[in-house]
Amino acid sequence: xxxxxxxxxxxxxxxxxxPGADEQLRRLLTYWRQSDGMLSTVYxxxxxxxxxxxxxxxxxxxxFLAALGFERPALDLARAACNHLTRGLxxxxxxAYLFDNHDLMLGWLELHEQxxxxxxxxxxxxxxRAIQAECEVSGRLVDWAGPGERSWRASxxxxxxxxxxxxxxxxxxxxxxxxxxxxxxxxAIGARSFRRHGLWSRFDTPRWEWxxxxxxxxxxxxxxxxxxxxxxxxxxxxxxxxxxxxPELGQAIGQFVRVLTQLYHQHGHIPQYPGRExxxxxxxxxxxxxxxxxxxxxxxxxxxxxxxxxxxxAIEQRRWQNGLLPRGAGQPGDHLDIxxxxxxxxxxxxxxxxxxxxxxxxxxxxxxxxxxxxxxHGLVLSVGSDGRVxxxxxxxxxxxxxxxxxxxxxxxDVYAKPGLWRLLRDR
Length: 427
Fold this sequence. Notes:
This protein is mainly alpha-helical. The chain has 18 helices and 14 strands.
């Protein structure tokens, strides 16, 4: 199989050797395959415990193979994924769930950018058109659709397809996709939950806003979830703002930052479910810091940088002696993928001038994660403060995503290369 370069020549490899990197790359090429060439979802040792084909997470696997120099295996994965699509989308039974197709759409786009293969872009456009036709209701994208039926709920997570539409427009110059992105963005900032609270509810209903408000109040966790709902929505708004800087979009993003700042001052961190569950949650704070860095880069909102640095301080207070971070308050273990993406957030903040120590923290965190999570069969999901394995499952997509640490060079501004920035994003 073709490789464009040896692993020892990967960006940053000469200055940051990660434990077991060469063996991990070998696993990416030879482990976890099904008979049709697709990847399975979860292993425990050599035993597959979740054989669901990794179609929905194509964007978390194939583009990383291509970026690491393995273009042919990456395209083989993409071709195998095509066999699992119906009318352009990945469906469970007769229903197409937007959560299952978001990273798939981004995967088509990223792999097209890396390889130039036109059929990949066509796959994305076909899927995006199917989503618009089946799932758009009153300018919002509902959670799922099937023959003759649709979800009543339009989670703010679905606004992440604004970013997909903007990327499709940039790749094709077809104004239709930009029109969709603008329409979805305008209806998102017009949502009742955002107008009243500066955050989006998980229960937004395009046609009966009052019903969504009632369901949100009745929910055990409350109406709002920060990650991945609100964060994905704002990343969608950022993408259209960077293409067409409408003042109202900038004001909405600024309002979101102000609400997050208030939450930080109230709690010393950002709760995952504001108003109901106030315990520290690593994912919420890591991905908010990541998002805030992008807000600074694309809008110049300086207050977002101050908040991001405060969140880093709150996170670092919880770091264990072995270099890992607890997944949440009272949690016995860390989380492999959050450790990876925290490093990305730190590198973004370093690129924005927040302090060189942040890159050093990223490098040390990645090294600790690769050291303590390493097993004979791959990187395990969770390890405790004493180095003991808490959860020995091998989550296959996390094996690929962990290579983000190999793709960031020591002196590499992640914003200087748009293709790298897009590859590093987590939605």
